[in-house]
Fold:
Amino acid sequence: MAKTTAQGCTDYVPPAGRLAVVDQDGATWVSHPLCGQALFALDRLGDLAPQQPEWKNTEPFIRKCRRKSNTV
Structure:
């Protein structure tokens, strides 16, 4: 982070170009990677399910395959 916030550094990012995502206690989301990883994995299950017909009868995939929406 020091490289992106130090003016004159080759990796410097001006304040208007910076983005941080925090939760209710002010911790950044990257300090809680499981949430992002879990959402990514669940999203990929939906993408891969049509290529894996056996998942329709296999837990834990069966629930995701039955779900029509993109909710977790």
User: Anything to note?
Assistant: The helical segments are 2-5, 33-48, 61-66. The chain has a mean pLDDT of 76. Residues 23 and 29 are 7 Å apart (CA to CA). Residues 33-48 form the longest helix (16 residues).
